[in-house]
Structures are given as structure tokens and as C-alpha cells.
Amino acid sequence: MADANSEAALRGSYVALWVIDSGARSNLLELNGARSNPRAGVELVRLGALHNELLRRASVDSREPRSIPAKVSPVLETVTLVLERARIPMRAREIHAAAEQLAGEPLRWTSVKAALAADAEGSEARFERVRRGYYRIRERVVPLCE
């Protein structure tokens, strides 16, 4: 048995096909906005047709995604080369300027700073932080075999 509000809603701008069950009671979805935009219907039909066509093409000619080749950061390699050539501790800003000159193109300051910070820690670190803002190539100590 429907209540008076539901029956009134069916006579108004509500459509009985779109009932949303919220658990406690069913609510009818109002379509006033959708009916006031006639272009939306045409565009949605076109979008649906395009979607179906793309799905059909994908099922006929499915492609495997290409793998991305692994490559070392060019910023890290450039910063390493700069510090290897310098052989003395350098300020991070000097490293950035020298790396840009060596690369022949602008390098992001944040990328250079990130490369220095990331490779200045750990047992396999490339760089050594001498003091705040100064870095040098870490000297590799080769253990003697006995």
C-alpha cells in the first residue's frame, strides 16, 4: 500500500522506473534536471555508441601493454659525473649549476637535491655529505683479502 506522497510523486516529475531503495523506504529519483536538458540525451546516446564501438575494437584487436625500459636517472648520472670530476666537496647549488652546464639543458633544482639526498645515505651511497649543503663522491674502501 503506497502512501499519499508516493502517489503524488508518480503523477509529478518523478519516474517510477528509477526507484532507489535506501533500506528504510524507497525514494523515487527526480528527473527534472535531466528533462530540462534535451542535448544531454543526444550526447549520452553518442557516448554510449562510442563506448560500445571501443569495446568491440578492443575485443577484436587486444594489445599487450608495452614494458617501460629501465633507465637510470640522467640527473643522478650527471651529478655523479660532476662530483667525480671535481674531486673536492661542492655546494649543492654549485653542483646544480655544473650539472646543468654538463647536461646542456636546465635541470630541476629539486631533482638535483633529491639525487644528492637519496644517494648520501646507506652502505651503497654514492655521495658523502661533508656538512650542510656540501657533498663529495664517497671514497670506496676495498677490504683487504687475508
Give a structural overview:
The chain is α+β, with helices and mostly antiparallel strands. The chain folds into 2 domains: about 5-55, no CATH class; about 75-135, Orthogonal Bundle (Arc Repressor Mutant, subunit A). The chain has 6 helices and 5 strands, in the order αββαααβααββ. The strands form 2 sheets. The protein has a 3-stranded antiparallel sheet with strand order 3-5-4. A two-stranded antiparallel ribbon has the order 1-2. The chain is elongated, with a radius of gyration of 33 Å.
Please give the number of β-strands.
5
What kind of oligomer do you see? Answer: single chain
Q: What would CATH call the class of the largest domain?
A: Mainly Alpha
Terminal CA distance reads 94 Å
With strands numbered from the N-terminus, the spatial order across the biggest sheet is: 3-5-4
The tally of domains stands at 2
Q: What CATH architecture of the largest domain would you give?
A: Orthogonal Bundle
Helix/strand/pairing category: alpha+beta
Percentage of residues in DSSP E strands: 15-25%
Radius of gyration: 33 Å
Q: Order of SSEs, N→C?
A: HEEHHHEHHEE
Spatial shape? elongated
